[in-house]
Specification:
By secondary structure, the protein is α/β, with parallel strands linked by helices. It is built from five helices and five strands. Helix content is about 30%, strand content about 20%. The two termini are about 20 Å apart.
Length: about 160
């Protein structure tokens, strides 16, 4: 199954770089199946839709404000993400993951399975590097991603 593991976020903004750190750790482990592509997606906005094309499964890793202690991570339901502005009034740069997934759904471009891992940041500022609590979550998030890669049956996203 063609799978994309996609990091979102900006490593120059503190804990927003958790996705890139997880991708780097997965790459260093050298134990991923050949049908898995690792990609640092940065902060794409609506063009994220283009990154999803051609994959049967997409696993996204990103910082997520869940109101939890820093470093807490969770597997998030992509159907429960809330768009900030359904009509994107003002600027397209305000579009995030939820808006991109809604657009992909409207264009019938969603892959059959989307998995999102969010990690609660401690600090998202203009300083590179992860906080100790978020950095400590990397091994567990990597293990969760690897566990998803062992699952064979895609779960349809509506």
């Amino acid at each position: 199954m063609q799978t994309l593991v996609l990091a979102l976020g900006n490593p120059l903004r503190g804990d927003d770089g958790i996705g890139a750190a997880v991708i780097a750790a997965l790459a260093e482990a050298h134990i991923l199946p050949t049908e898995v592509t690792l990609q640092d997606g940065g902060t794409p906005g609506l063009e994220l839709v283009l990154s999803l094309q051609g994959y049967e499964r997409v696993i996204i890793v990103d910082a997520a404000d869940m109101g939890q202690p820093p470093g807490t991570w969770a597997r998030l339901d992509p159907t429960r993400l809330e768009a900030r502005d359904l009509y994107l009034r003002g600027t397209l740069h305000y579009a995030g993951l939820a808006e991109a997934l809604q657009l992909a759904g409207a264009l019938n471009l969603l892959p059959p399975e989307i998995i999102i891992f969010g990690v609660q940041p401690a600090e998202i500022g203009w300083l590179p590097g992860l906080s100790p609590a978020v950095s400590a979550a990397i091994p567990d998030v990597c293990a969760a991603v690897r566990a998803c890669l062992l699952e064979e049956t895609p779960q349809k996203v509506d």
